Amino acid sequence: MNARRRPELRLEPPASDLPAHAVFHGTRWAMVAVAMLADGVEAAVRILDDPSPDKLRDAIGHVIQQRIASGQLAEAPLTLAQLDRVREEFVRVLSGMHHVRIDYPVAAGGIRADWDTASGA
Fold it and tell me: Is pTM beyond 0.70 here?
């Protein structure tokens, strides 16, 4: 009996065949598009000196607009309203990660912003 061989499943061409910026180009899955945006947004907001919610919102909006303009989201099944919701969720999450913290008293087990590991103070 001659068993039929199933074709190999390839989700994308090998990365070596593509320019670095094109790996996610033309994604047709919303989840992959959001992950691609999250990666770009996370890298972009790391350089902000003052990551206030307004600055985060502007930076995230800029990254999303760049991806739209370059065609990376052209085939993604996301509406502009959904992209706006994604942006607001990114702002919410990143605001929580990058908010300013107060110094806690060392006597209460906290550390200050100028804490030195060598002296423990």
Answer: no
Numbers of helices and strands, H then E, in the chain: 3, 0
Cβ neighbours of residue 23 under 8 Å, at least 6 residues apart? 12, 15
Rounded Cα distance, 68 and 99, in Å: 29
Tell me the C-alpha distance between 32 and 21, whole Å. Answer: 15
pLDDT at 85 over 90: yes
Q: Where are the domains of the chain?
A: 25-108
What region, left, alpha or beta, does residue 120 occupy, with left being phi > 0 and alpha being psi -120 to 50 degrees?
Answer: left
Contact, 51 vs 90, CB < 8 A?
Answer: no
The residues, any chain, with a CB within 8 Å of residue 90's CB and separated by 6 or more, are 37, 38, 41, 56, 60
Q: Which residues contact 59 (CB under 8 A, 6 or more apart)?
A: 41, 44, 45, 48
